[in-house]
C-alpha cells in the first residue's frame, strides 16, 4: 500500500489516470443516485401522506396498508427500463459497455439514454482535472468528494428542480468538519481554516435567503428554492466566505445568459422556472479549481506599485 502511494506521488500522470478511472466508476454510481434518490424521496413523502391519512381516518373504515418492494441505492439491481432485464457487471462497465452495446439494451434492443455515459465521462474528466490541479494528497481527495457531490446535485436539479437535503446538508457538514484540519498545504484551495468555513456557510445561506425573501416581497413570486440556499452554504463551508461573491457573480451571469437563450430557443415565456443549482455547482467547481488565482489577479489590478 505504501509503495502504491509512493508511486502515485512520484508519477503525477499515474495519479491523474487513476483518478480518471475512479471518476468513471463513481460516475456509474452517481447515475444510480441521480435516478433513484428523487424516487426514494417521493416514496417517502407518499408514505408520510398515507400515514397521516390513515391517522385521520382512524375512526372510519379500515384501510389496507400497501406493502412496497424495497427500493434504495442498492436494491433492486439495475435493470433495463423497457424490459426489466437485469444489467450484468459486464454490461455496466462505464462508457465501454455503452459503446460495445451500441447504446442499446442487450436483451430487448431498446435505446439506452446517452445521459448515462455522459455522467460517467463528465465525472471521470472532472476527477482527472482535480487530480491534475491539486496533485497527490488530501486536498485532491477533498476536491474529488466535492466534485462528485456537485455532479449528482447538478443532474438531479436539471431533472426535478430539486436539491435534496440528503446531499446538501451532508455537504455542508463535511465542509465544516474538513476545515478542522485546514489549511495544510500552502496555496491549496482545500481545506480552508475553520473561521472562513463557518462564516462561509452562514453567509452563503443567509445571503440567498435574504435575496429570496426580498424578491418575494417585491414581486410576490419565489425566485429560487431553499435547496439553493443550502448548496451555496455548502460551497461557503468548503471554499470559504472569500469565494462566495465570485461564485454568485459567475453563476448569476451564466445562468441569466443560458436562461435567456434557452427560453428563446424553446419559445417559452419568462415565467418558466429554470434550476439555479447547476449554475451554482459549476461556478463553485470553477472557483475550487481557479478561484484563488482569479481573485489574486483581480486584487493585483488595484495594487499600488512603489
Q: What does this entry look like structurally?
A:
With 306 residues, the chain is mainly α. The chain has two domains: 126 residues, no CATH class; 170 residues, no CATH class. The protein has ten helices and no strands. α2 packs across α4. It is globular. 33% of the residues are buried.
Task: Furnish the topology, listing elements before pairings.
Blueprint: H1 2-10, H2 12-56, H3 96-100, H4 115-134, H5 138-160, H6 165-178, H7 194-219, H8 226-239, H9 244-266, H10 277-300
Gap from first CA to last CA = 52 Å
Q: How many domains make up the coordinates?
A: 2
Indicate the proportion of strand residues.
under 5%
Secondary structure: helix percent = 55-70%
Number of helices: 10
Question: Structural class of the helix and strand makeup?
Answer: mainly alpha
Q: Regions with pLDDT < 50 over 5+ consecutive residues?
A: none
Q: What is the H-and-E element order?
A: HHHHHHHHHH
Which descriptor suits the 3D outline? globular
Largest sheet: none
Alpha-carbon Rg, integer: 22 Å
Number of E-state strands: 0
Averaged pLDDT: 88
Name the features.
globular, 306 residues, 66% helix
Summarize the structure.
The chain has 306 residues and is mainly α. The protein has 10 helices and no strands. The protein has 2 domains: 10-135, no CATH class; 137-306, no CATH class.
